User: What shape does this take?
Amino acid sequence: MQRRHVLKMGALAGGLGAITERERQAQAQVARATRGTPSPKIKDVQVIAMQIPASRPAAIARPGSVRLSVVKIITDQDGLYGYGCSTFTQRGELVNAAIEKYLKPFLIGKPTDRIDDLWQACYNSSYWRNGPVLNNAISGVDEALWDIKGRQAGMPVYQLLGGKCREAADTYVHITGPDIPAVLEDAHRMMEQGYHNLLLNPTYAQGVGGLHEGGSGTGTLGTSSVFQSAIFARTALKWLEQLRTQLGDEIGLMCDIHERLTPNEAVQLAKDAEKLKLFFLEDLLSPEDLAYFRQIRQQCATPIAMGELFNSPHEWTPLISERLIDYMRMHVSQMGGLTAARKVAALGEITGVKTAWHGPPDTSPVGHMAQVHMDLACYNFGIQEFTFYADLTKELFKGCPEVKNGYMYANDAPGWGMEVDEKLAAKYPYGSLEEGERKQLNGGWGELRRRDGSVIKQ
Assistant: This one.
């Protein structure tokens, strides 16, 4: 009797042990499912440097071509990688070196899922910070990490930001020409393609607004290109008046000043343009003259967009928090990438300032796609600058953002939904499409002077 009791108890214990093992296995399976795959580690950081043609030379700052830098982060998980834009055309070689010589050894072996932590580590590890070279380098890394997270989750990045607030991003395009008839022709051509927001860009119209090549202006001292800001301001206003008259009130009309006026000229232009009901005046002042935005706000209601040259939060925070501008248009690949941009966008939502991220030709399609994902997810989105893509660019970057009837759509594939043809990119290295001054200056810009020979901001 006692023996049977012992055997019974042993069997019961064995059964309990078996149940415990099954429970343990079930719990382990649940843990694996909820934990997902192990956190990827950074295995390699690469720079894909290339030169692409400009698709609309007349409507960009420097005709011909631009240098693009794309960061590719490869993880220790097969097939998992991401792309980010670190383009700084005028000083591209320096950004590439910053990534390869400094950020790469700093990042190897670190987990990819701690994006904000890695941003802070990269930002602070140099000690001196908020410069365009390192900020562009960090931007490329940051955007690549967001791409990886989206690919890992099987979602487009805008889903990771909370999902869509809108179906597509309203855009604006540049119009320009040597005279107002040519500008009007360009405007009608864009309107026929479905664009309903147009930005007048007289800044680079040779021979107009006091701009002369080779010091050919009367009384010019020197041989550089010459720019006369007062003439430019008067010309810009006359062109805007004719555009408003010819195109009507339903077209969103803007003008790019490119920081080329004196503060007093800028204040006067903003006052004179108030009657035209502009969508906004862009970059009316340089970053060195930010205090004058208070004077503009006190004297007129002309909407102001500002920010493409900003590197630091110390530049944009006062303008947004004091409601001195209406649209923030920082260069996302210069300000630190998506991580920095989404934070300042949240500040703008609180203060009523809208986003209008800088979207020039010298931002890669990867950078443009990062902006579109924010445009879709940010409630305080205002408008998005659009750049046309040349056929070669579309071959290099599979999955470029698409525009239909003036609205830009994101690629709904995981991450940014983009792939870079690295073999094709290798055929177009830096300098391969440059000539003249741009080739001589290694992709940099030349000088622009007043009639007396002094250098102006550009």
Remarks:
- The CA atoms of residues 66 and 362 lie 6 Å apart.
- Residues 2-35 form the longest helix (34 residues).
